[in-house]
């Protein structure tokens, strides 16, 4: 059901035209098995054969796309074929101070045969995903700086969102016409351990953060906080994670986007509501003691998303986010970092009055966000509501 709705939705979305053009895959319009060899990134890996659904998703909005969609339905498959994981390129920041744990995590989840490069270094020959792990605060410049060689490979880029490290990158990608159905994107639902967290000074292996939160009315398992991927390389991402015991849901862009904004809501609300407290607060405590505030702020931002970006979150988001905080939020500190202000907090359309009241409070009373341009609010928040265990106050009735 989900898939059909997703496909139908894709047909009405038209790809942005700004930015540069992408090479469109040469063979399309029908489904067939192709085998070819890809000159590999690593010498131990020379020939890859795989089947691929050749579906020119870059052109979903025109007549050709509709024919392709009909062909696709005629195959009787409910999902697109998946690209497998393979030796890949991981792009890290060239500034050692801005290398984030995402770079290590993606490398650690691979088979040790990925190539880690800095922007605009020569790319290996072959067909592989290019994982972009530069932090969001360098992403705009990274894209502006792209050499022609790299621009020609833009359809192989994989971008990340979600968590304190990845935040929201949609506004940046949109400015370059890179928010499109074929673009590979991942909402991160696994841990990003810092260097030194594991044995021998290396980072620990990333672990799944997804949690099973029971079953729905149809007996289907419900999950919160799971990794989700979309776009050309979504299968490669999913197989890389799956091999490491990390759930990854592959979805179409439109649904992925709703999941991404759900995660964005969590990253903003939980960190702000907790960071303004007198005592150090973790995500579990926000869910337990500051539930009303978190809920009110969420709904404010949700309304802004609906009005400003036409994003309607997936039913049950409030239950999922609270459950996620309750199951995974213990010991996860509520933090506000200046570098991430424009990528976690300043990303929601609409007035966001409550969010900005809290951010101003954090700035004036807590000495946080000193380098951030927090929008002024009509009236300052002089006092925060006191912690209360509200119980059963959520609209969904979950205690
Ligand atoms: C963009 O290019 C400039 C000039 O070469 C360089 O100094 C800067 O580090 C680059 N930025 C990124 C994010 O790669």
UniProtKB/TrEMBL annotation:
Signal peptide start and end residues: 1-19
Region listing for Disordered, in residue ranges: 372-399
Keyword entries, A-Z: Signal
Name by which UniProt lists this protein: Uncharacterized protein
Species classification: Eukaryota, Sar, Stramenopiles, Ochrophyta, Bacillariophyta
